[in-house]
């Protein structure tokens, strides 16, 4: 298997390499690409040093079995179609193709069947969406979600390495902010991404549109508020749902226990405890009646929300699904 990783030096890129190693995926060859900033640096992969190369116009004009992209939407828009046209299956962490018709938006546990005999670009969903749909897909199949109201508490690493550095500098006393619209240290910022004409943010509309596409149901009414909090790793979500069919809480617990890569727990997990895990932790499930419930979920945004999902897509596709 011949692999390339574009954006290998970033938060997601580095984690994808780690995850490939953890899954004992040892390609015959791997090429690592970045911008000119990191070109020439050395990265370790399966015990060997690999030199990172600058992504250039002709870099991907060759055959790869898989090319993993995590260098932002503008890079993906230009380079992913080139890689795909040379025969690669592209797994793209950016938002570039998530809403494109004909491009599967995949969370393997939910709609991995879309990968069967598929070649071309596969889109990896947004981090907040992945952990939310993993905790809701079985409940949706059984009871039919009508309304989902979600408030997120998103770690600074969701904004990439620059987000981590900005919080670290503010912790050391800096008052400057460039990545987040307000100071994030000792604060909470209720905007992620630009505000659109409908007053929702880009991040919020990702949660709306991606959830509908992954669950294959355009009728679900989704009401997100996405919030940045001064946490390094791990997104949290408070989710309220209304269902078509009645349930009792034990019914929901049964579905959650059966949901792949989801842990239903009485423990009160926080991001600090679950960083480094590949699971979604669901707790505090509660209700006043038979059609509405609340739950809390926590997951590692770089792993569950990006790198692990991408490598799970690769594994499932390579195994023929
Ligand atoms: N962080 C998350 O929780 C998360 C979750 C889901 C999806 N994503 C998506 O994953 C992507 C990467 O996110 P990240 O958090 O890893 O960001 P990051 O830490 O800022 O890393 C960005 C990576 O892209 C590379 N890059 C930037 N411009 C490039 C260019 N013109 N050509 C080639 N490489 C270029 C960077 O290389 P240099 O080292 O040279 O700068 C670096 O390797 C984004 O699309 C993001 O939306 C992130």
List the helices and strands and how they pair.
Blueprint lengths: L1 E5 L4 H12 L6 E6 L7 E4 L2 E7 L11 E4 L3 H13 L3 E4 L15 H4 L9 E3 L3 H17 L1 E9 L7 H11 L30 H14 L5 E5 L9 E9 L5 H10 L3 E3 L6 H4 L5 E7 L5 E8 L3 H16 L3
Parallel strand pairs: 1-2, 1-5, 2-4, 5-6, 6-7, 8-9, 11-12
Antiparallel strand pairs: 3-4, 8-10, 10-13, 12-13
Helix pairs in contact: 1-9, 4-6, 4-7, 4-9
Mean pLDDT: 97
Estimate nothing, just give the exact number of structural domains: 2
Assign the CATH class of the largest domain: Alpha Beta
Classified in CATH, the superfamily of the largest domain is Dihydrodipicolinate Reductase, domain 2
Estimate percent helicity.
Answer: 25-40%
The dominant shape is globular
Low-confidence spans = none
Number of helices: 9
Class from helix and strand fractions = alpha/beta
Order of helices and strands: EHEEEEHEHEHEHHEEHEHEEH
The end-to-end distance, rounded to whole angstroms, is: 17 Å
Concise structural overview:
This protein starts with a strand and ends with a helix. It has helices at residues 11-22, 73-85, 108-111, 127-143, 161-171, 202-215, 249-258, 271-274, 303-318, and strands at 2-6, 29-34, 42-45, 48-54, 66-69, 89-92, 121-123, 145-153, 221-225, 235-243, 262-264, 280-286, 292-299. The chain is built from nine helices and 13 strands.
């Amino acid at each position: 298997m011949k692999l390339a990783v574009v954006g290998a030096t970033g938060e997601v890129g580095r984690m994808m390499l780690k995850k490939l190693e953890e899954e004992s995926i040892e390609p015959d060859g791997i090429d690592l690409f970045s911008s000119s900033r990191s070109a020439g640096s050395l990265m370790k992969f399966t015990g060997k040093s690999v030199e990172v190369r600058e992504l250039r116009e002709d870099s991907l004009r060759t055959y790869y079995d898989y090319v993993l992209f995590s260098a932002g939407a503008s890079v993906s828009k230009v380079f992913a179609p080139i890689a795909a046209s040379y025969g690669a299956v592209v797994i793209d962490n950016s938002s570039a193709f998530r809403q494109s018709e004909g491009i599967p938006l995949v969370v393997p546990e939910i709609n991995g069947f879309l990968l069967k005999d598929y070649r071309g670009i596969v889109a990896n969903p947004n981090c907040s969406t992945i952990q939310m749909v993993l905790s809701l897909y079985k409940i949706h199949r059984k009871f039919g979600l009508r309304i989902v109201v979600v408030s997120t508490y998103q770690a600074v690493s969701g904004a990439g390495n620059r987000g981590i550095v900005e919080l670290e500098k503010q912790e050391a006393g800096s008052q400057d902010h460039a990545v987040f619209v307000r100071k994030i240290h000792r604060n909470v910022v209720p905007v992620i991404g630009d505000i659109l004409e409908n007053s929702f943010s880009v991040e919020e509309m990702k949660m709306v549109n991606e959830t509908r596409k992954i669950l294959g149901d355009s009728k679900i009414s989704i009401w997100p508020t996405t919030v940045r909090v001064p946490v390094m790793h791990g997104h949290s979500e408070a989710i309220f749902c209304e269902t078509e069919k009645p349930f009792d809480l034990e019914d929901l617990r049964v579905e959650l226990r059966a949901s792949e890569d989801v842990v239903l727990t009485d423990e009160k997990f926080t991001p600090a405890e679950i960083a480094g895990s590949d699971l979604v932790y669901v707790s505090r499930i509660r209700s006043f009646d038979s059609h509405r419930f609340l739950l809390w979920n926590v997951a590692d945004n770089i792993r569950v929300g990006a790198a692990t999902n991408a490598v799970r897509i690769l594994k499932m596709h390579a195994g023929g699904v």
